Amino acid sequence: MQQYDYLVIGSGIAGLTYALKVATECPDKKLAIATKSYEDESNTRYAQGGMAVVLDKVQDSYQQHIEDTLRAGDGLCDEEVVEFVVKEAPARLKELIAWGTKFDEVKQGKYDLGKEGGHTANRIVHHKDITGFEIQRALLERIHECPNIDVLTHHFAVDLITEHHLDVEVTNKSRNCFGAYVLNEETRQIETYLAKITMLASGGIGHVYRNTTNPKIATGDGIAMAYRAKAQVKHMEFVQFHPTALYELDREGQTFLISEAVRGFGAVLRDKQGDSFMEKYDERGALASRDIVSRAIDTELKRSGDEYVYLDCTHLNMEEFEKHFPTITNKCKAVGIDPAKDLIPVVPAAHYLCGGVEVDHYGQSCVGNLFVCGEASCTGLHGANRLASNSLLEAIVYAHRSFVKSMEVFDTIGDLPIPPEWSEKGTTHPKELILITHNRKEVQSIMSNYVGIIRSSERLNRAHKRLRLIHEETEELYRKTKVSPQLSELRSLVTIAYLIIEQSLKRDENRGGFYRTD
Q: Would the pTM count as exceeding 0.85?
């Protein structure tokens, strides 16, 4: 049994920022960061575009950013949340810079501000087209300077520890979190990690779909654990599909993202006949918000029977393009596409979850001592659709607010109970891995075919019926075999799929990223 003051699950921008703030403010407190893969593998790592921050008060304003966010969220944003996130952004940006993050400048002290879909002004601070990678690099360097932080790689959180593990009577109002059971993949033992405060910053759910921009670790484990612990989970129906993932024949799993900033730079979406089509759907053309562009592309592909549309960059200044987007340029050239001469084939792919574990303005869930931050949380900022480059911003603002609140409540938390050790002595690779991989692919197929960009009650009900059987098979397998990362991920994906379908069936109006034909 391991005991810490704070347990952070996840090593993206949200978890790292929170841990760094706590560790530096409270050097006498012990923290653990548990991450299921390598320390730098997260959705943050693959965030290309940047972070939306109002810096140019002449061409931009807080009110413009607020209005752009509200418009993208299609009436479902929490306006109070939107206002404080936007207004706290500059202070959080200064912290990132102080920690060593390098953002592109046009001259000393003046940042190169990009523009993306849904924004009415240039306000995206970035580091070329690998902004998330750069932020994570800087944060990890500072994390390793903190002697009171243990970074536990290849440690897979299996379940949150609450009163139900203690076999005591509890109501939802009095439910608390005391840490987590964590699978150490090196020893194959499930270890008990106790903590007064647990920060769940476990990232997204992209691999519930066949194609996603997310890394393979994005299987919704944190949300699934929180749901089992009786946390409130909402807005799961609002899955954002990024309009422009690179189309590669027969590729499934993680797809390569062509940043929205490319369209902000002037790229145009075209069909196979070479015609620009976005003007038919929105006056902003290719710079409409992601839900509109993704739905337009989906409509065009269904109408034409084609597998992809094109992103046209051939008219752009290629010297500047390659300077701004070196990673995208190199990837395209690696697959035989020269953006200076060739059109880039693109398709929408699952990208970001606008819902998650419901939290208050300080990242607290309804489960005591459990904070949730980043993509696993539902803060009210995004509403029905996320405005581009608001996710990194949300993560650092809520990491700060969670830090402030957890400092306030830490000393009010009493002694931790001692839960039983995990009932199994160890874990094994499942003997019939094919049963798990087959069901995982079937979940992804169900979600991609029936619960994608455009849905209907008939498709959703069909998905619900098919998923029920997979759920029964998976739970039976879970009861009969020892825990493995593969089986735990499958359980998470089944839970996430169920939540998306259930909440899609309950929503009776089309908003933002949610669209039902009926």
A: yes
